[in-house]
User: Fold this.
Amino acid sequence: MPQAFSSLRINPDRMLDSFTQLAAIGATAGGGVDRPTFSEAHLAARRWFREHIEQNGFEFRADGAGNHSAFLSCGDSSAPTLILGSHLDSVPNGGRFDGALGVIAALEVLKTVRENRISLNVNLEAMDFTDEEGTLVGLLGSAALAGHLRLENLQNPRGGQERLVEGMKRAGLSDESMLSAARTKESLAGYLELHIEQGKRLERAGVNIGIVTAIVGIWSYRLSFIGKADHAGTTTMEDRRDASLGAGAFTLAARELVMRDFSNCVVNVGKMEFAPGAFNIVPARVDVSLEFRSPDEDEFNRLDKALLELAARESSRFGLELKMEFLGRHSPSLMDDKVRAAFAAACDDLGLSHMPLSSGAGHDGQSLADLCPVGMIFVPSVDGASHSPREFTKWEDCVNGANVLLQAALRLGSG
Amino acid sequence: MPQAFSSLRINPDRMLDSFTQLAAIGATAGGGVDRPTFSEAHLAARRWFREHIEQNGFEFRADGAGNHSAFLSCGDSSAPTLILGSHLDSVPNGGRFDGALGVIAALEVLKTVRENRISLNVNLEAMDFTDEEGTLVGLLGSAALAGHLRLENLQNPRGGQERLVEGMKRAGLSDESMLSAARTKESLAGYLELHIEQGKRLERAGVNIGIVTAIVGIWSYRLSFIGKADHAGTTTMEDRRDASLGAGAFTLAARELVMRDFSNCVVNVGKMEFAPGAFNIVPARVDVSLEFRSPDEDEFNRLDKALLELAARESSRFGLELKMEFLGRHSPSLMDDKVRAAFAAACDDLGLSHMPLSSGAGHDGQSLADLCPVGMIFVPSVDGASHSPREFTKWEDCVNGANVLLQAALRLGSG
Assistant:
């Protein structure tokens, strides 16, 4: 890397100005934002991004999946593109930093590179990916860009078919356009993302930057514990086949299993649905929304087996039937070694402490990991708050992250 | 009792014909009936009952609470009324016997008394009480008749305000009419009801008739276990305050407590509601629908204390807050000794075995127990099935029950 590059820094005030403008769109009383994919607030944030790109004299690009970007031609016209980015959608009643910081920092890196008239071996693109959070599908824009999206992903979306069709219509997208957004391996130099940690590890360790080693995979099931509806007054306790007992015992035992034997993993029972669901009827059926995460594929297989055995055991202990519906998986994604090294060198040059971390959350990088070199960095989340209006990262840490993103992009783009 | 009375029997074929006509109204594919209060099917059953009463030459009566009855003047015009009855509404997708058997048997008793030109010290009334099952309020017609109904019971009904208003409108009822249906103590000689057991005790014991000692009381709460919504991937297992753990542990422990220390009681967690309720968010709040029943007031107080302490303990074990909303109580109701003795004597005369039983279900008799002598008998439920299309009682047992009802009414009405 040319020596002059290492003294470059992003402009913290300019970045803060953009960040603040964006945070006002869909702002909630609690200090967060509410921008589920293709909601009015999300569409407004997308319009703001487009106008901001154009007002700043960048080329605005939009693909068939609704991914929006600023393109900076700082390399040959035939040079591959290094994408920097994140997403502008939020979970319902989410925070200001998740996604937005990465998009704003990416654009700030492009501004910094352009104003310093830097030539690289790559062109740069600052991207807002569509529907990262999964209001509709999850990692939708990045899957489309990576060529992984299939028509069936659009036909049984987790947010419901009607909502997806309606949202795509509002955003001017179609199934056909979605499936046409794939890019080639040759066109891509890599993908870098700055994100908040969404956990407490950096804060507890007092470290500036987390360099992501892997994005955990996610497996999910709907487990149905099935007993028998009976009158809750006239049926003796002994005679009941109460579905709540299997569901409750499984939830408690799954937590203990993971804490004892799978310390790299997490498990969540995010929802139970009771049927028939009345005060005076013994529950005949409880549907359990189960999700578990691991950074390692072998560990996934072991955990999967252990959890399903546990469900079967707790189910039969209470005389219940068990039905298991596998809802899908995202495999764990390893981050690229060269990108990790570039992040580490950038931190060292900037005098910032860093540590390796796995990402417990899914991110767009996992869609791209088999297509091009992918890397991510985290900055500390105060008290680990995430997907909440309480989400907060000190501005100094945001600036640190943007500078590491800049320096790593310069290294990778001139190497 | 005049000796001639003891040879009287109801007409089994005539009763079966009426029972079968009624069971066809709102019949479901599974062999049950679906007649929630003031549904089309329920209104049709009510019309059938009215026409049947009138075609059989009885006086049809309707009060302001929508209670319908056949009146038989078999005593002085100033004599008190002995009410026999039950209800024509069903739970959604319920059975043919629950309620309907008691109404049909009551009317059959009146037919038998009339055709034998019997004079008694009481007049007889065969009654269908409004909304016993609680689609709208629960024990609604009997509470109104007993003078216990208050305007506030109509303003926060368990079935929802809109549904109650709409249903009352369809049935031609109003708040004012409801509150005007009260009868006086002096006007009533008692209330007798034949019902299916809804449990397995008679079948297991091989006994013909259960003579109810008490109708259990019901207390209900909404318990809210409150933790913190967090990202289910990035929050370590140790850092979570997962509301599902308190709710699950409480459900399991409540069952153990009742089975160990409160063998006369039952407890049910019929529903849990998770918030926010997503696969990838640690549950912040679980609302638990808790109901427990006891035939004894002192035991209720002990069980209440023990359950709430348990909820507090399981809640704090997982770092959760607990909110408790008391939703109401029905006190246990003791059946009248004289009525019980009349049932027992009737069984003995008929050569039917009998045993004392508490009723785990609520019944209209509990509304009337402080107003007049109340008694109930149960006939065996095959496999204990209840509130289900599988509900079944052998016709021979139905006939036995109707004859016990007849004989007890004759004893009480001529004593």
About this structure: Chain A touches chain B through 61 residues (CB under 8 Å).
